[in-house]
Design brief:
Blueprint lengths: L1 E6 L2 H12 L3 E6 L4 E3 L4 E3 L2 H8 L4 E2 L7 H8 L5 E5 L7 H4 L6 E5 L11 H7 L4 E8 L9 E8 L6 H25 L31 H10 L6 E5 L2 E11 L10 E5 L2 E5 L4 E8 L6 E2 H7 L10
Parallel strand pairs: 1-2, 1-6, 2-5, 6-7
Antiparallel strand pairs: 3-4, 7-8, 8-9, 10-11, 11-14, 12-13, 13-14, 14-15
């Protein structure tokens, strides 16, 4: 098929590469505009643009894809289908209906669960045991189109937002190739979505990483894993921000004020929560690299009774 590919971050690149390897012709890569990043404000290309340039595929970076001149630009490529994966802009009806096979989206959840911008992280935060990828025929709603194909992924006990991201990116690439073949052969079965059993998977922000120690230990442990590597879960220790990268639910509960360090051991320290406690295994403080808690304790004093705010 002749494909217009619409995507922006790393999550999209695997599918982009898989379509090329499967013999599809990507005639245009549509991605978000370049943005300055880092302290030096150096302009960086979106990952999809880098992949397209490597394959000598034309790149289109509209600020507003729904602008009339942008829609007309897309028509010039006479594509059979548009594949959309983490593009970052809402598509108007004119684009959704532009090609014979319409727009197919690769969504990182088992729809209708976790519609929205951050389905991967919210699945981990909410303690899901299974996640997956759904290909969907896009309509004007927000992740509400007919489902085409699905694949499931069982989450590991210590799954993080980052590790699940990589697993679902690989799974989505293969599923997208299968979906296009089924569409071409006329064998795909469309399934309307029902009501979602989960809240909208809203975008992440740094503020949601602040740990509320009054919550139960398991909920906090899931939050830590879900926000790893970004935006990360954190607390305050001696006036410094302490990022917590890894923790285990412990069997200790002394009924102390939530956030109180109740035990210090060679390989970590336990913190009282609203129910149960967490043993911190890996952390980071400003100006230092991520380190295991044992190494941290060899260089810094943490006493039982210290309260993390």
């Amino acid at each position: 098929m002749k494909v217009i590919f619409m995507g922006t971050p790393d999550f999209s690149v695997g599918t982009f590469e898989a379509l090329i390897e499967a013999g599809h012709e990507i005639v245009l890569a549509v991605t978000q505009p370049d943005k300055p990043k880092g302290r030096g404000e150096k302009v960086q290309y979106p990952p999809v643009k880098e992949a397209a340039l490597k394959h000598q595929i034309p790149v289109f970076q509209p600020k507003r894809v729904r602008a009339p001149e942008c829609i007309e630009e897309l028509r010039k490529y006479d594509a059979d289908i548009m594949v959309v994966i983490a593009f970052g802009q809402i598509l108007p009806k004119e684009i959704l209906e532009m090609t014979p096979y319409g727009c197919v989206n690769v969504h990182a959840s088992l729809l209708p669960k976790y519609r929205g911008a951050a389905p991967i992280q919210w699945a981990v935060i909410n303690g899901e045991k299974v996640s997956g990828v759904t290909t969907m025929q896009m309509d004007e709603g927000l992740d509400t189109g007919d489902m085409l194909m699905k694949t499931e992924i069982v989450l590991d006990e210590k799954e993080t937002g980052g590790s699940l991201h990589d697993k679902l990116a690989r799974a989505g690439a293969g599923l997208c190739v299968q979906t296009l073949e089924a569409l071409k052969d006329g064998t795909v079965v469309r399934e309307p979505q029902g009501e979602s059993t989960t809240e909208y998977a809203r975008m992440l922000d740094k503020g949601m990483g602040r740990i509320d120690w009054s919550k139960d230990a398991k909920s906090i442990e899931c939050l830590i894993r879900g926000l790893n590597p970004w935006p990360s879960a954190y607390t305050e220790w001696n006036g410094r921000t302490m990022k917590i990268w890894e923790a285990d639910v412990a069997d200790i509960d002394e009924g102390r004020e939530p956030g109180t360090v109740i035990r210090v051991e060679r390989d970590g320290f336990c913190v009282q929560t609203g129910r149960g406690s967490l043993k911190v295994r890996s952390l980071q403080i400003p100006g230092k690299k991520r380190m295991d808690a044992g190494a941290f304790l060899r260089g810094y004093q943490v006493d039982a009774g210290t309260v993390l705010s």
